[in-house]
Amino acid sequence: MALMVPPANEKKRVKVYELKNNDWFDRGTGFCTGRSANEESKILVESEDQPDRLLLETKISKDDGYQKQQDTLIVWTESTGVDMALSFQEAEGCAAIWDFVSQVQSHLLALGGPDDALSDADMEPFPNPLHLPPPEIGNLEEIEHAMRNIATTVAGRDALAKFVINEDYIRKLIPLVETAEDLESLKDLHLLCNIMKMLILLNDSQIIDHIVTENVVFGVIGALEYDPDFPNHKANHRRYLKDNSRYKEVLSIADPSITKKIHATWRLTYLKDVVLARILDDPTFGVLNSLIFFNQVDIISHLQNNSNYLDELFGIIDNPEADLKKKKDAVGFIQSCCAIAKSLQAPGRATLYTNFINHGLLRVITFAISNKEASVRVAGTDILAAMIDHDPSMVRAYIFKSISEKKTPLTDTLIELLLKEVDLGVKAQAADAIKVLLEPQQPPPAQAQESMTRQNGEFMSKTRPQPQPNPQTESFIQHFYDHSANKLFQPLKDLEGRKSLVDITFHEVQLYNHLVEIIMYLSRTHQFRSKFYIFTEDLASRIAELLAAPQKHLRLTALKFFRQCIGLQDEFYNRQITQKGYFTKILDIVYATMPRDNLLNSACLELFEFIKRENLKPLIIHLVETCRPRLQEITYVDTFQTLILRYDQMQGYNPDADTTLFSNDGITTPNRTPNINGTRWQGVKDREMDPAEEDYFNGSDEEDETLPRIKKQRRDSVITNGVAISPMLKSLVDYPDDDDDAMDTSSSEPVERTIEPKLSPSPMLQTPPPERLSEKRRREENDDEDELGKLTTIKRRNSGPSVSSTGGNSTLKRKKAFVSKNENRDSLTDKGSIKKIEISLGAKGAAAEQGSKGDEDA
Fold first, then answer.
1. pTM of the full structure
2. Can you give the residue ranges of the Serine/threonine-protein phosphatase 4 regulatory subunit 3-like central domain (predicted)?
């Protein structure tokens, strides 16, 4: 059998849509044709702008599930599982392509084999054609049972949907609803409700489109009011939909099809969100959304292409003689159009806003947000928010134009709205609009919203790319600081001199919250201007007064401001915090809330924990020097004790070093010079030498020439790699580097044995007196001593605490220099390679014990 003849060659103007992430994506506008060649039939769409480019080329198959929705839509699913749609400009073009598709599918089904989805085997349980019992009161139970059995298979659902459409079965069921209500037959009403649910859940777009028509919708909705799942309750859907006061026509629309689509869209939305919200499955929900979306596209396209209608619509706002109610309805209509535009693709949304702006949309916003009625102000802020979300540069350009013309800019209107509005939603939208309009440069969409990024367990302001500044935007921002900022932050400046915040009102609390949030936003985006303004107006002190407010969330907002200032690690903010003494008020919150572990207390602790973790020295010094007694009293967390310890370490005082392992050897630890008059401890250079050291250095020895060098090394800090090492960190024994040449362990000659113990650093380090070189030489000359004895004597000399690698390297260098200058040590360097012996901790302890016994015997 030959393929069907394709439709006429005239091209049908159409838009191609693709479903991506439950949203219809516009692939472009073009001209649609149907073609048959080589036993294949295809639908082709050529681009309107580039005729050589194909927007769509799809092969028609028998199982793609083509559906015609309304008069201008064809929807189907590709073999890859992608949902596609064609939206025709004219119903005639849609009908021509649909006839072509239907003929091709009928031809393919006739050629299909036994594995076809609609084969005779699958259709065998159903008569051909399918019949249902006549729609009568007495047959309702039989109708429900038959429909339930038929709908169990895909083939049965398709056959049932075709039968219902062809026989206009729904329209025949509608009179039964009124009859059952007159008879007060609740059972029949429940049966009718179940039948209507099954028809809707067939997921057929033609059925759903038919249900929301003017003559059918009220009968279907009436049956759905009697839900058998709630037998004792009855809904009032019909009364709600019949309320004509909800339909407000600002201007009559000449095209009656657009009016029908507006009403159908309203009913579909109500059906989806209210009537069927509990029973909808995903396929039916998708069909309803698709019908709503394409209706909205047609409505918006008609409006923006009708320039005369837009002129009359926006002229209502500018007409001083127009009725106030009509102006209110006009604002509401424009609000609805902007809400619909959110679901459109970016090109269509941009076209709509451009047309609206050219006709005076921003004048409508100014009129709405300054209106006395709350509903009009809400509509105005909704329109403004939708525009700012789309492109704030358009709004900035309008504001800049108003400034150039010496008119009141929109920002001043928003500021007045923020200060006086009592509706919390409107107040929040006004604050957000002000922040977005003051953005120096609009970031990419992924960064459009103000955000904070947690880094290293810490909230830091997000780093944004700094593009080249726009001169117009810079001029607009400078005008804000020169003329508008004082008016915006005047409520905060009025806090100066206020004795108490106990009588603060709810309206003031919300206003202060928004103002502090705006200041935080400006401090992140306008770093130079905001710092200058905060300093000159002393806003930080006014925000600090909010730390004493009785409302916890207001205190938390003020605390968040100081937390951000510290997190920026800016010297300007740190200086402000230390000079004004804001930590005192933050500590008052800690004392008032500890140890309850609530949000406010935790936020305070996190602030001090950040100072400790980042080691912000100016803040630590100021905090401990001014509030040390109060910090010492907070012991349920260790943060404050650690801050005090950090401060003491910076001042050169280490309380852990007062008692050491050598405190029993008769060596007295020198006292640390305290911090007097702000002068920090200068090390051990100026300390008095204890008697034991005097006697040691006054004693005679053959190495007297080297004693001044040792004494100087003990008194001065060791410098290694540019880092000063405290005398307390000196090594007792000089160790060679690990990179020295391999040592010969087979030599039998007496050698100097260098021990490399593997010990963890001791927390308490004390500088021991240097060992007499003569005693060391006598021990090395004892060749008859066994190996354990050698280890014992070496261990005795190495019984001090371990030191860091830096200290070991520096002492090794000093040892090499010392040996090279002492001619009496030449014999040691000629005795062969040095042995390197490693001992375990257990052996080391035993060696130390035997070494101490050896000392007693000596």
1. 0.59
2. 142-649
**pLDDT for residue 41:** 83
Q: How far apart are CA 574 and CA 773, in angstroms?
A: 55
Query: Sign of the C-alpha dihedral, residues 341, 346, 351, 353?
Result: positive
3-state SS assignment for residue 755 = strand
CB neighbour burial string for 20-59, b if at least 16 within 10 angstroms, e if fewer: eeeebebbbbbbbbbebeeeebbbbbbbbeeeeeebbebe
Q: Show Cβ contacts of residue 459 under 8 Å, excluding neighbours closer than 6 positions.
A: 452, 453, 563, 564, 567
Nearest to 643 by CA among 615, 667, 666: 615
In terms of DSSP bridges, do strands 83-88 and 23-37 run parallel, antiparallel, or are they unpaired? unpaired
CA distance 580 to 541: 8
- Non-local CB neighbours of 130 within 8 Å, separated by 6+ positions: 150, 159, 160, 162, 163
- Cα–Cα distance for residue pair 388/352, rounded to 1 Å: 14
Helices 140-150 and 154-167, axial angle in degrees (round to 10): 140
User: What is the spatial distance between Cα 858 and Cα 852, in angstroms, rounded to a whole number?
Assistant: 10
Is the alpha carbon torsion for 527, 533, 534, 535 positive or negative?
positive
Question: Among 249, 262, 243, 246, which Cα is nearest to 326's?
Answer: 249
Token pair recorded at residue 406:
């010496």
- 3-state DSSP percent of the chain in helix, strand and coil, to 5: 55, 10, 35
- Three-state DSSP at 350 gives helix
Can you tell me which residue has the tokens 């630890």? 669
pLDDT of 602 reads 92
Q: What whole-number distance in Å separates Cα of residue 338 and Cα of residue 46?
A: 31
Sequence-ordered list of residues with C-beta below 8 angstroms from that of 335, at least 6 positions apart, any chain: 379, 382, 383
Q: What pLDDT shows up at residue 795? A: 40
Question: How far, in Å, CA of 252 to CA of 255, rounded?
Answer: 9
Encoded tokens for 828: 């040691």
Q: Distance from CA of residue 503 to its chain's centroid? A: 36
Cα-flanking dihedrals φ and ψ of residue 448, to 5°?
Answer: -65, -35
Q: So what's the pLDDT on residue 563?
A: 93
Q: Which helix (H) or strand (E) holds 106?
A: helix 91-111
CA distance 157 to 132: 13
Q: Is 483 helix (H, G, I), strand (E, B) or coil?
A: helix
Structure tokens at 82: 């992608």
Angle CA(749)–CA(755)–CA(760) in degrees, nearest 5? 170
Nearest-angstrom CA–CA distance, 818 and 768:
19
Give which of 116, 123, 127 is closest to 156, Cα–Cα. 123
Tell me the pLDDT tens digit for each residue of 188-226.
999 999 999 999 988 888 899 899 988 899 999 999 999
Q: Whole-angstrom Cα distance, residue 605 to residue 547? A: 15
Tokens of 583: 């930590």
- Report how far residue 117's alpha carbon sits from residue 713's, in angstroms, rounded to the nearest whole number: 96
Cis peptide leading into residue 129 (ω within 30°)? yes
The residue whose two tokens read 């050629």 is 111
Q: Residue 122: name the closest of 158, 93, 162, 89 by CA.
A: 158
Alpha-carbon Rg for the chain in angstroms: 44
Residue among 606, 591, 502 nearest 554 (CA)? 502
Parts of the chain with a pLDDT under 70 = 1-10, 38, 63-64, 109-129, 441-469, 653-858
| Cβ(510)–Cβ(427) below 8 Å | yes
Backbone angles phi, psi at 459, to 5 degrees: -80, 120
Identify whether the C-beta of residue 430 lies closer than 8 Å to the C-beta of residue 417. Answer: yes
CA distances, 652 to each of 151, 462, 664, 680, 768 (Å):
86, 37, 25, 7, 20
What is the Cα–Cα distance from 96 to 82, expressed in whole angstroms?
24
Given a contact cutoff of 8 angstroms between Cβ atoms, the answer to whether 170 and 220 are in contact is yes
Tell me whether strands 23-37 and 12-20 are parallel, antiparallel or unpaired: antiparallel
Q: Alpha-carbon distance 185 to 92, whole Å?
A: 46
